[in-house]
Design goal:
The structure is a single chain. By secondary structure, the chain is mainly alpha-helical. It has one domain: Hyaluronidase domain-like (Orthogonal Bundle). The protein has five helices and two strands, in the order ααααββα. Strand 1 and strand 2 form a beta hairpin. Helix 2 packs antiparallel against helix 3. The longest helix has 19 residues.
């Protein structure tokens, strides 16, 4: 089952990096369900990020997006700078930039969100601990 978690996590990251956030959320929620211990919050953090970006891109819901992105950052911060082969420190800084831009939309100071601001997850599969 552990190698299956790595396979599914890798699939989830690929969906995130391809901006398929709904599928990413589904895959990572499935992984989160199977994981036990202190790393569960790590996976849950990525679920929040995927849902947050889905809300802004597919639902035009900046309030929901901000809620989910902030939850994701809060959960992932404790695993910095890197965990399970995922570089977190720089990624979280870039997500904070996304949050700032989405806040502008929420406050009526911007019309649209630039999808190119969303960072790609840098993942080294060799550093994933099974």
């Amino acid at each position: 089952m552990d190698s299956d978690i790595l396979t599914r996590f890798t699939d989830g990251i690929n969906k995130f990096n391809n901006k398929d956030f709904y599928e990413c959320h589904d895959i990572l929620e499935d992984v989160w369900f199977d994981v036990r211990g202190s790393s569960r919050r790590f996976y849950q953090g990525f679920i929040h990020l995927a849902v947050g970006f889905y809300h802004i891109l597919e639902r035009d819901n900046p309030k929901g997006s901000l809620s989910q992105l902030n939850k994701g950052i809060t959960k992932l911060e404790e695993y910095q700078p890197e965990f399970q082969g995922v570089e977190l420190k720089n990624m979280l800084k870039k997500i904070q930039i996304c949050i700032t831009e989405i806040e502008k939309i929420k406050n009526g100071k911007s019309e649209s969100f630039d999808i190119d601001l969303i960072p790609k997850i840098k993942f080294d599969k060799a550093r994933f601990i099974i």
